[in-house]
């Protein structure tokens, strides 16, 4: 077969797959199409519900949408009371977008319906089949240009907690010279989470990339009104992909859903990358205390996010 004939045959296979996948997506989103929103509008609502401090320019870039179209959609959302706009602290010409309580209440059933439909599809496959499907999707994205950028967030599995203790202890020893006191602290936090875990109020997310764990975070119950974010971690091999920001956004979405009034966290001033993530997500520094821990003189910080 000549090269041009081979390319034509392969193009036919790709087009056939596109038609198949389009049909699948049509079935999955049939319910959403019956709502007052288009699929693109739901995509915009999803981004606003799950990410902090977005501007219209961010939405255009992330979703590949026309600026005029996005402007019209956002104007419609604003007229319906779904979003608010505040001046960006870094660029007064731009506005940061945020869903209102009404906006979150509107988006929640749409998101739940979409999630339930995809879960129903996955349940038709065995556990190995689900992993094979996800890896095939990741491989397509890598081959078409998204090399090394795809990852998934999942619930922890047996063995993950031991990995978290090991990897964080190694990382902080390498990058900050912290001693075994920190490893003991991680082990205590993880052990308490496993021993006292309450699924109504607590969660852990594992970030997985190409079959390898590259990040994690915990939400634990401080009291009936307060959630605590603990042990945010992103492996050096996966930094720059937005995983840390995504993990924090998932934490905030969870604590809003279950009804906490605020979220707090404790960190140290030397962890500058993590502090930037917290600040961008809306946390405020409320306390600083010098201390000597993990073999180093440090400045501990308490950050809070009122919900």
Task: Outline the fold blueprint.
Elements lengths: L2 H26 L1 H4 L5 H12 L5 H8 L3 H13 L3 E5 L7 E5 L1 H23 L3 H17 L8 E3 L5 H17 L3 H17 L6 E7 L2 E10 L4 E9 L8 H16 L3 E7 L3 H9 L3 E10 L2 E11 L1
Helix pairs in contact: 3-6, 4-5, 8-9
Task: Describe the fold and architecture.
The protein folds into three domains: 1-34; 36-124, Winged helix-like DNA-binding domain superfamily/Winged helix DNA-binding domain (Arc Repressor Mutant, subunit A); 152-306, Aminopeptidase (3-Layer(aba) Sandwich). The protein is globular, with a radius of gyration of 22 Å. The model has no long low-confidence stretch (mean pLDDT 87). Strand 8 (284-293) and strand 9 (296-306) form a beta hairpin. The strands form two sheets. Strands 3-4-5-6-7-9-8 form a seven-stranded mixed β-sheet, sandwiched between helices. It has a two-stranded antiparallel sheet with strand order 1-2. It has helices at residues 3-28, 30-33, 39-50, 56-63, 67-79, 101-123, 127-143, 160-176, 180-196, 243-258, 272-280, and strands at 83-87, 95-99, 152-154, 203-209, 212-221, 226-234, 262-268, 284-293, 296-306. It is of the alpha+beta class and 307 residues long. The chain has eleven helices and nine strands.
Named CATH topology of the largest domain: Aminopeptidase
Q: If strands are numbered along the chain, what order do they take across the biggest sheet? A: 3-4-5-6-7-9-8
What is the string of helix and strand elements? HHHHHEEHHEHHEEEHEHEE
Largest sheet: 7 strands, mixed
- How much strand content do the residues show? 15-25%
CATH architecture of the largest domain: 3-Layer(aba) Sandwich
Report the total helices.
11
The share of residues in helices is: 40-55%
Gap between N and C termini? 63 Å
pLDDT averaged over residues: 87
